[in-house]
Each structure stands twice: as structure tokens, then as C-alpha cells.
Amino acid sequence: MGFAFGIFDSFDLGDSTPGAVLTNRLDLAVAAEAAGIDHYHVTEHHGTPLSVCPSPNLFLAALSQRTSRMRIGALVNVLPIYDPLRLAEEIAVLDQLCAGRLDLGVGRGVSPYELAYFGVSDEDSRALFTETLDVVTTALATGRMIHRGERLRDYDVELSVRPVQQPHPPLWYASSNTNSAEWAGRSGINFVGRWNGGSFTSAADTYWNAWESGPRPHDGTPRVGMAATVYIGDTDAEALDRYRKANDVFVRELTKLWHDNDDHRVDAQFDTDAGLRRGAALVGSPETVRDRLLEQVERADINYFEATLAFGDLAAAESIANLEAYAEVVVPAVRAATAGRPHTG
Questions:
Q1: What stretches of the chain show up as alpha helix (H) in DSSP?
Q2: Dist. CA 328–CA 202, nearest whole Å
């Protein structure tokens, strides 16, 4: 099994155009597969320059034809805004297109403003998430969607296509919350969070304790890991300067909807310097980034790491160079350091 690496992509507009962003990200994903990266995960956002690809499954369909080994998926599909039947069908088709390489990320959404675009309140999103997840996974496993809705409508329909992976593609969930970690561990769902100054170590422990005492519904050991923005330059000073400029553009896009609604609750959370202090970004020379990640991996019981390598106003060539340095120096060092650890064998 070993330690695995992924890339996370939000398709933020930066100072580019939507067509260029999408083309460049396809090229980045192909280069990532060639460099030995194991997973490529994309996000879902609506009505914001944080993403110029509001339908992640469209991008994944294209990526399925450009890759052959790397696992791909959304992290996450925002379940409360989907018609369950349509989502189940899309998931099944995607898994067929990529020959069983699909990761199925699920979540309830992080922006109340984006949920509201679809007529969903933040208060109702958790119950809708839970009901939709049950409906979709049951339909994929059985081939028929039969449901008497509480918040959803009733369904009784046979799926015309089922996924390659049975009972369904592996589920992924993203959160650093220890309550979420316990639920994910009990359910055997792959789990990704942020370092957050070291607090993720307790979330990882909570996950494994729940997994080891739970029913373990799926074969194999799940992935538990951290996500961070990574930027690598020739020197620490050079990398930090370029990261600050690019990330400030990214933060401008990330907070736009909130600021449009005169809401500044997320400002402190996504401040560039605060992110650096919390370890949400690993920035510096190849050796500095390697050593910082090795320190985190040593402290947390994880078997997965997901890097954002393209963001803000980074040009395509800069993102590719970032990937190359990451794959050449950081990835092999972490693989070597984690060989034989629990949950990687």
C-alpha cells in the first residue's frame, strides 16, 4: 500500500482565463501522473472566481481520457445541491470512463452563499447531505434507487449504468473536525484534513481508533492524510516572496462571496501569514519543504498527503516547476521515511 500522494485543485481564476485554467490543469494532471502522483482531486464551487469549473465531473470526464493510472475524483461533490438520481448516474459513468479509478468525495458544502444559490439553507444542509449520501451509495450498490424521501422526493428507478467499483467507488471526506474524524473512521471513509498547528494529530488518532473498533465495511486500509498548499523555489526567501503574491490572489478569490455579503468571518482563517504559521502552507526550498513535511508526518499517524501546487496567479510553467521539485525531492523522502509504518503496509 505505502504512503500515497495527491494533488488538490480548485480551478481558481487568478489573472488568467477559464479556458487557459482548464487546459493548464489538464496538462498539470497528466504531468502529475507521469511524476508518480497517486490521486488528483478537484473541488466544487459556484458563482465565484474560486472555481471556473463549477461542475467537477465535466473536468473529470476529460481527465479520465488523459490519464490511465492515477485515481481521480472530486473532493468534494456538494451533495445537498444535487438531484440524487442524476449524481448517481454521473458517478457510475465516470467510473466506467476511467476504468474503476474514481474516488467519490462527499460533503455538505462550506459556503452558505453558494448553497443559497440552489435554494438550500446552511441549517438544512447536514440533513440533506446524510439523506443524499445514503440514497446515492445504496443505488450504486444495488443498481436501483428506491427511496421514500424525508427532505428528498421519492424515487423508484433502475440505474442504466453501474460503477466498475462495487459496491461503489471509495468515499472521501475532508475535515479537520474530530467529530467528523470519528464518523469517517467508523465508516471506513478516506479522510483528509489540515495540519492546523498540529491539531490534526488528534483527529488522525480519533479516526484510527474508530476504524479499528468499527465494522470495517470495505477491504483494505483507508487513506488518512493532510492537505496543504505547497510552493517550492530555489531559496526560502524567493519561494516565500512568490507564494505571498500568488496566495494573496487566491485569498481574494476565496473570500469574494463572503465580502460581497459584507461577511468577514473567514478573513482570519485564510490570511496568508496565518496559514503559514498554522502549517496550512509549506513554502521554501525543496529541502525546507521536505523537512517541514517530514516533521508533520513524523508527528501524525497518516498515510496520505495532498498538495495544492497551482493557485492564484502562478503561471502554468511555475506550477509545473513546482510539481517537478515536489516530485523529485519531497515525495521520495517521505515515501522512504514512512516505509513499514502502521497503516501503510
A1: 18-34, 56-64, 84-97, 112-117, 122-142, 178-187, 200-213, 236-254, 256-260, 267-270, 272-278, 286-299, 316-325, 331-338
A2: 30
Pairing of strands 102-107, 224-232: unpaired
End-to-end CA distance of the chain: 5
* Exposure letters 27-57 (e unless 16+ CB within 10 A, then b): ebbeebbebebbbbbbbbbbebbbbbbbebb
Which residues is 41 bridged to in the sheet?
8, 73
Whether residue 150 contacts residue 131, with contact meaning beta carbons closer than 8 Å, is answered with: yes
Indicate the pTM of the whole model: 0.96
The three cell numbers locating residue 76: 468534494
Count CB atoms within 10 A of the CB of residue 326. Answer: 25
The three three-digit cell numbers of residue 25, written as one number:
490543469
- Over residues 38-82, the pLDDT tens digits come to 999 999 999 999 999 999 999 999 999 999 999 999 999 999 999
Radius of gyration of the chain (CA): 19
For the chain, how are helix, strand and coil distributed in percent, rounded to 5?
Answer: 50, 15, 35
Set of cell numbers at residue 188 = 471506513
The bridge status of strand 171-174 relative to strand 304-308 is unpaired
CA angle 230, 231, 237 (to 5 degrees): 135
DSSP 239-272: HHHHHHHHHHHHHHHHTHHHHHTT--TTHHHH-H
Sequence-separated (6 or more) residues with CB below 8 Å from residue 103: 39, 41, 71, 72, 73, 75, 169, 170, 172, 190
**Tens digits of residue pLDDT in 234-282:** 999 999 999 999 999 999 999 999 999 999 999 998 999 999 999 999 9
